[in-house]
Amino acid sequence: MGIHPDFTTDPQDWLIRHGCEAPVFFFSPKVLADTALFFEENFPGEVTYAVKANPAPGVLQTLCRAGMRAFDVASPAEMAQVRAVCPEARLHYHNPVRAMSEIATARGHRITSWSVDRASELDKLGEIAGQEIAVRLKLPVKGATYDFGSKFGAEPEAAVTLLRTVVARGGRPSITFHPGTQCDDPTPWQRYIEVSACVAAQAGVRLHRLNVGGGFAAFRSTRAPDLQRVFSAIKQSVQSAFGDAQPALVCEPGRAMVSEAFTLALGVKALSGDVVFLNDGLYGALMEWRDIPAPERITALAPDGTPRRAAPMPRTVFGPTCDSLDRLPEALPLPADLQEGDRVMIRGMGAYSQCLATGFNGYGQPHLVVTE
Ligand SMILES: *Cc1c(COP(=O)(O)O)cnc(C)c1O
């Protein structure tokens, strides 16, 4: 991936000046820092960042400079990525299934905060006195674009037993959950918080912390999601469910933290009838489009930067590889006056995009340009 460090204020200007035909990500550290500040000022607890959404060094560096001091990591590689730019950060190792070698690496990184969802993985941690062990809870809740409870998590009864074991071994007991990604309604958090309080009460344990996960929605349709509404609902639920035994709160947004900081500029390679060939697709930065499309966040520009304004018409969109699966699952509405050589600009592409792009068939490695 080519990195163009020259600062530009405007992606359109950059594209006109450079006439670059490859896909380009425009990254705005300012938008990211503002989003971090928004979370910091409005979420009623500690804000950490889920590194997997976008581990680019510029992203981690911007968050560190914006004051973030704790990160949610899932692998040794992510630990090293955070340490490289933010050596003093606290790392929450919230992948509940770990190889012994990964546990050893984590200890080398001075990790003292872990999540578990089964007794065998708690046993693997060995000595846990004084360390935070967050029991990962799972519930059958609806509201997210896709569900995170299908892989990890202990059901309430098992969570009660795990919490008791953590306390018996001298660990600091917390609960963590993930309501599912791109969740714009507070209901799943409310439900999880109520059950967390019951689980803690049943275990007879006062929680050290309650980690309400990620899942906060990014701007994917016509309106930005109302995160304030979700934060207030979380705060209220914790007050009413825990009363005077309120734990400190933590959240770990990935998607909502980083999405708006990136705009993806793709190029139209060819047009024929209602078929459009773009220079990137499902094997590249649009990997997630199948599950979470954002057709409303697209604009099309002529090579001189003029917006294409004709009414949209549905197009079949292929990516650049020679694989027939490289096709967006739904027709995409693109302006009727779209032409070969035009740019398709997609806003809000910072999460699960750059990091998922493969290099299949020699495509899918967009340039990165830093903007203001
Ligand atoms: C992926 C993940 C997150 C971030 O989820 P988003 O939906 O991107 O906010 C947070 N916590 C854990 C444990 C995760 O696996």
Fold topology:
Blueprint: E1 3-8, H1 11-18, E2 24-27, H2 29-42, E3 46-47, E4 49-50, H3 57-65, E5 70-73, H4 76-85, E6 90-93, H5 100-108, E7 113-116, H6 119-125, E8 132-136, H7 156-168, E9 172-176, H8 187-203, E10 209-211, H9 227-242, E11 248-251, H10 255-258, E12 262-272, E13 275-278, E14 298-301, E15 312-318, E16 332-335, E17 343-347, E18 367-371
Parallel strand pairs: 1-18, 2-18, 3-11, 4-5, 5-6, 6-7, 7-8, 8-9, 9-10, 10-11, 13-15
Antiparallel strand pairs: 2-12, 12-13, 12-17, 14-17, 15-16
This protein binds pyridoxal-5'-phosphate (PLP).
Task: Write a compact overview of the structure shown.
This protein has helices at residues 11-18, 29-42, 57-65, 76-85, 100-108, 119-125, 156-168, 187-203, 227-242, 255-258, and strands at residues 3-8, 24-27, 46-47, 49-50, 70-73, 90-93, 113-116, 132-136, 172-176, 209-211, 248-251, 262-272, 275-278, 298-301, 312-318, 332-335, 343-347, 367-371. It has 10 helices and 18 strands. The protein has 2 domains: 14-23 and 259-370, Lyase, Ornithine Decarboxylase, Chain A, domain 1; 29-258, TIM Barrel, CATH 3.20.20.
At CATH level 2, the architecture of the largest domain is: Alpha-Beta Barrel
Low-confidence stretches: none
Task: Tell me the total number of β-strands.
Answer: 18
SSE pattern: EHEHEEHEHEHEHEHEHEHEHEEEEEEE
Kindly name the structural category. Answer: alpha/beta
Q: What is the C-level CATH assignment of the largest domain?
A: Alpha Beta
| Amount of beta strand | 15-25%
Number of helices: 10
Number of domains: 2
